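user: can you give me the structure for this one chain? tokens are fine.
assistant: on it. calling the predictor now.
[tool input]
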Amino acid sequence: MALSDLTPRQREVFDFILDKITNRGYGPTVREIGDEFQISSPNGVMCHLKALQKKGLITREPNLSRSIQISEAYRQEQGIPLVGQIAAGNLSEAIEQAERFAFDDWFPQRKNQFALRVKGNSMIDAQIADGDLVICRRCRTAHKGDIVVALTDEGEATLKYWYPEANRVRLQPANASMKPIYCRNAQVIGIVTGVVRRVV
């Protein structure tokens, strides 16, 4: 049932169905899917729907125009994806992982949220410690002073305060013993919206 098992087009169709159900309250018709993806034949749409149904992602009721639903099994499996670890010390590339955490009691589920495990203590004065999980909202822009997941000029991911300056960006640690990172082309990947710490 992993989304990674879908073809690119199947994933696009599934995301379209999920968006309609989430934001409109009911699924799209076969015709709406065909119009969205310029599939002229209803049979072409049905091939994608049958594949999604076979993989356990959707259910369909025969002879109903708006019968497409997200499967209960898929809903139960969903949480905020833990996509890797993020440097809060020396720079380190974030690595994709398959593990998932469900934080429904703390954070409302949104499609643009993800979680990262912190490695290092450069944000310790912001109460973000080594081993914590940071919950992030995926976005491409940030305000001055936001705690962000950023890509440096070298393409490495780091967790820092975001401070745009005249012709560069200062990625400021929350640790008096560490120096800031200066970048000319830093990119925001997400903004931190919460921190989860496990106390043993």
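assistant: here you go. The chain has two domains: 3-76, 79-196. The two ends are 32 Å apart (CA to CA).
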